[in-house]
Design goal:
Elements: H1 12-65, H2 67-72, H3 77-97, H4 101-124, H5 130-149, H6 154-188, H7 192-207, H8 209-218, E1 230-235, H9 239-251, E2 259-265, H10 267-278, E3 286-291, H11 304-310, H12 312-319, H13 337-340, H14 345-348, E4 354-358, E5 362-364, E6 381-383, H15 394-397, H16 403-406, E7 420-424, H17 425-431, H18 433-443, H19 455-461, E8 466-468, H20 486-491, E9 494-496, H21 513-517, H22 525-532
Parallel strand pairs: 1-2, 1-4, 2-3, 6-8
Antiparallel strand pairs: 4-7, 5-9, 6-7
Length: 533
C-alpha cells in the first residue's frame, strides 16, 4: 500500500509535544511564585520581633513619662500611698507634741518605707503592684487609725498645722528682717581702706602748706562763675567715690578743659578731698572743693532740715528702738545735711545759670555736655522718669491718706530719679523751689507725709517743674538689680549704683563692679597702699 504524502499525514505526535512544553512552563512559573512567597514570609518573620521590641520600648518610655500622671490618678496605688504619707507626717508632729514618741517613731518608719517604694517605682518606670503596696497601706492605715483613736482628730490636726504654719511664717519673717538689718549694716559701714585713704590724705593736707596756698588761690578763679563753661556739682564725704565720678566725667568729655566741678564735703573729709584733687591731674578741668561747715547761712533759722537734724526726738525716732521704721530707712545718709544740700544749689552758686547734679555712686560713660543745650521747656529739673514699673508712682512714696497730699497731687503721677539731674537755676529762682522745699519740710515735722530721704520731698518741690529726659541718660539699679540688660548699660550715659551694693563695698555685684573700678587711679601711692593691699 502506498504511503501518503507528507503534507497529508496526521500531526498527532507534534500536538502531544506542545502540551508537554506548556505543562513544563506552568510548573516553572508555580515554582517561582512559591519561592517568592516563601522568601517574603521569611522576611516578615525576621522583621516582626524588631517591631515587637520597638513597641515594647515605646510602652516602657510611655510608662516612665506618665509616672507622675499615675501618682495623680485617683485610682492608683501611688496616689493612695502619697496621701497616707502626707497624713502620717501631720500625725508625727501631733504625736510628738503629745509626747507620744513611740507612735511618732512608728509613723516615721512607715513614711520612710513608703518613700522607698515610690522611689523604686520611679527608678524602674513601672507602677506599684498590689503585692508591694498592700502591707504598707495596711500598716499605715492601722497607725493612722491608732492616731485618730488617741483623739488626734481632723480638727486637732488642722489647728496644729495652722499653728505650725504661723510659727514658720514668723521665723521666715524674722530671718528676712535680720538679713535686711545685716545687709544694711554692711552698706552703712565705711571700709577700712577708705578710712586709710582719708587719714593719709588728711595728713598730707596738714603737713603741706603749699597745698593750702594753692587751694586759697583757686577760690577766686573766674572759671568758677563762667556760664560759658559746663558746671557739675557733687556733695559727698567719700573721696574715692567722688574721684571716680570726676574721672569718668572728664575721661568721656569731648572738651575736658571746659568742665568745672564743684565739690562740697564735710569737715572730716575736707582736707583729704582737697589733697586728692590738688595732687592729681584731671586733664585741665577746674575743680573746687568746699566745706559745708563754712556755710554760716545754712542754719536753724533758715533751713528746717537743720532744725530737724539737731532735734533729739527726730534722731530717736529714726535710730531708737522704733518698730515702725524699716531697717533700710535707718541709714544715716537720710538725715545727712550733705544729702539735702541739693535743694540749696541756687544759694550756693548764685551766679550760675545751669548746672548738672551727680550723686557720688554714679559712673559717667558718655559726654554729658549736650545736657546743657537741652530745652527744658521752662521747667527747672531735667530727670529720667522711673514709672515704667508701678512702684515708682507718687502714691508709693507719699501718704495720700493725708488730705494735704491728696488734695494737691496726683497719686498716679510719674516719679523720677535723683542722681543725674540738669537744673535750670534761672527757672529755679523764678519758681522759688527752695521755698517750696522748706514748706513741705515744715509740714512733715511729725513724719506723717513721708518717711525719709530726699526723693519724696523732691517729688513735692519739683511737682509740675520736671522735664522727662531720654532713659539712656540715666540707668539705675546697679546697686541691687542683678539682671539689667547689658545693651541698656552700654547705651547709658550715666549708670547709677543706687541700692546697698555699692561698688566700693565687698557686697558689690561682681558683674557691674569693673564698670566702676576702671576709673580708679591706681597709680596714686596711697590708693595702692590702702585699697589694693
Amino acid at each position: 500500500m502506498r504511503r501518503r504524502a507528507t503534507d497529508y499525514r496526521r500531526p498527532v505526535r507534534r500536538r502531544f509535544s506542545h502540551w508537554i512544553c506548556a505543562l513544563l512552563g506552568l510548573f516553572v512559573v508555580a515554582v517561582l511564585v512559591l519561592f517568592v512567597v516563601h522568601h517574603n514570609h521569611n522576611e516578615d518573620r525576621v522583621e516582626h520581633p524588631v517591631h515587637e521590641d520597638d513597641s515594647r520600648m515605646e510602652r516602657v518610655v510611655h510608662e516612665k513619662l506618665n509616672l507622675t500622671e499615675e501618682i495623680l490618678s485617683a485610682t492608683s496605688l501611688s496616689r493612695q500611698l502619697a496621701e497616707q504619707m502626707t497624713l502620717a507626717k501631720a500625725y508625727v508632729v501631733i504625736a510628738k507634741e503629745h509626747n507620744n514618741f513611740h507612735l511618732a517613731w512608728e509613723l516615721s518608719s512607715m513614711i520612710r518605707s513608703c518613700q522607698l517604694l515610690l522611689s523604686k517605682a520611679a527608678m524602674r518606670g513601672k507602677p506599684i503592684t498590689l503585692e508591694e503596696a498592700e502591707s504598707i497601706i495596711s500598716r499605715l492605715s492601722s497607725l493612722i487609725y491608732k492616731a485618730e483613736d488617741a483623739h488626734y482628730d481632723i480638727a486637732t490636726t488642722i489647728v496644729t498645722m495652722k499653728s505650725h504654719i504661723q510659727a514658720l511664717e514668723e521665723r521666715a519673717n524674722a530671718a528676712t528682717v535680720q538679713s535686711t538689718v545685716f545687709g544694711q549694716l554692711v552698706a552703712e559701714a565705711f571700709p577700712k581702706s577708705l578710712h586709710c585713704l582719708i587719714l593719709k590724705l588728711s595728713a598730707d593736707w596738714l603737713k603741706r602748706p603749699p597745698l593750702q596756698d594753692i587751694a586759697n588761690e583757686r577760690r577766686n578763679s573766674p572759671r568758677l562763675v563762667d556760664n560759658n563753661l559746663y558746671h557739675f556739682c557733687i556733695f559727698s564725704d567719700n573721696v574715692l567715690a567722688t574721684s571716680v565720678v570726676v574721672n569718668s566725667t572728664i575721661s568721656n568729655a569731648d572738651h575736658s578743659k571746659q568742665i568745672v566741678f564743684h565739690i562740697i564735703t564735710n569737715g572730716v573729709s575736707y582736707g583729704a578731698m582737697q589733697a586728692w584733687f590738688l595732687s592729681n591731674d584731671f586733664k585741665g578741668s577746674t575743680i573746687e572743693v568746699q566745706n559745708i561747715e563754712e556755710f554760716s547761712w545754712l542754719n536753724v533759722s533758715y533751713a528746717p532740715i537743720v532744725k530737724q537734724l539737731l532735734d533729739v526726738g527726730s534722731r530717736t525716732y529714726y535710730f531708737g528702738e522704733n518698730p515702725n521704721i524699716e531697717p533700710k530707712l535707718r541709714n544715716p545718709k537720710y538725715i545727712s545735711l550733705l544729702n539735702h544740700l541739693r535743694f540749696y544749689i541756687p544759694e550756693i552758686y548764685p551766679q550760675l545759670e545751669k548746672i548738672v547734679f551727680l550723686d557720688d555712686d554714679v559712673v559717667v560713660q558718655k559726654d554729658l555736655t549736650p545736657l546743657f543745650s537741652l530745652d527744658l521747656h521752662g521747667n527747672v529739673n531735667g530727670a529720667v522718669e522711673t514709672c515704667l514699673e508701678a512702684y515708682h508712682r507718687y502714691y508709693k512714696y507719699l501718704n495720700f491718706s493725708n488730705p494735704i497730699i491728696s488734695s494737691k497731687f496726683d497719686p498716679q503721677a510719674c516719679g523720677w530719679a535723683f542722681g543725674m539731674n540738669v537744673f535750670d537755676l534761672i527757672a529755679w529762682r523764678k519758681a522759688n523751689v527752695t521755698a517750696r522745699y522748706h514748706y513741705w519740710q515744715e509740714q512733715n515735722s511729725d513724719k506723717t507725709l513721708w518717711k525719709l530721704g530726699t526723693l519724696p520731698v523732691g517729688l513735692l518741690a519739683f511737682y509740675g517743674l520736671t522735664e522727662p529726659l531720654d532713659r539712656r541718660w540715666h540707668v539705675l539699679g546697679l546697686g541691687y538689680d542683678l539682671n539689667i540688660d547689658n545693651r541698656l548699660i552700654e547705651s547709658a550715659a550715666v549708670i547709677h549704683f543706687n541700692g546697698n551694693m555699692k561698688p566700693w563695698l565687698k557686697l558689690a555685684i561682681g558683674r557691674y563692679k569693673p564698670l566702676w573700678e576702671r576709673y580708679i587711679n591706681l597709680s596714686h601711692p596711697y590708693l595702692h597702699e590702702c585699697v589694693t593691699s
